Amino acid sequence: MEINRDAARQSHAQGLTDHQEMARIVIPQAISLALSIRELIRQGYLFGAHVLVRPLAERAAILTYLHQFPEEIGKWKRGWGPDEAPSLAKMFDALNQVLGAGSWMRGKDATAHMNTLLHGKPGAEQWNVVFTPDGRKGQSVSKILNRGDLCDDVCAQAAPWLVVVQSMMVAYFPPNREPQDGTLH
Question: Is position 178 within any domain?
């Protein structure tokens, strides 16, 4: 929240670049999603928290993609219509190439799990399985309070995306390194 506060302060300045204008919109959305995931976890709504990981990942990918491919900002400004917007999988593929990650995982493989949850595909059932007192398997429609493994999984999936968002905050809105009082942040 401290990094966000500093970035937000800078985002209110006049004369932002197109990229900073984009970041001014996308960063708060990503933070809101991360906070929503946290709150859903705290309340035991683990399935909903899992579903929100994809929109969080997408915001992190948008920030990183447009940072690495600045020439694409015009497409974003036009609303990234269906004929222009790169899919999340395509953004991952492009980022893998430019950031040197190679082809260890194709974008569509990286997004398959998230898309299964988001679109209600058959494989999504594992993310809201609960067991009745007599040991039978069922699907929760509410809180899941006895599946620490699901809680750990959603945290492990969301945390890296939040780190990416934080790094993009600093990339788009570099912190002031020389405060007036002479101390460094």
Answer: no
SS3 content of the chain, % helix, strand, coil (to 5): 65, 5, 30
Burial 55-86, CB ≥16 within 10 A → b, else e:
bbbbbbbbbbbbbeeeebbebbeeeeeeeebb
Backbone angles phi, psi at 63, to 5 degrees: -60, -45
Q: Which domain holds residue 151?
A: 2-172
pLDDT over 90 at 101, yes or no: no
In a domain, 114, yes or no: yes
Q: In this structure, is residue 183 part of a structural domain? A: no
CA distance 52 to 155: 11
The pTM for the full model equals 0.85
Whether pLDDT at 183 is above 50: no
Residue 10 resides in a domain: yes
pLDDT at 181: 47
Count up the domains in the chain and report the number: 1
Query: Which residue in 35, 18, 26, 179 sits closest to 8, CA to CA?
Result: 26
| pLDDT (tens digit per residue) in 5-25 | 666 666 666 688 999 999 999
- Stretch 31-50: mean pLDDT, rounded? 96
Q: Which amino acid is at 154?
A: V
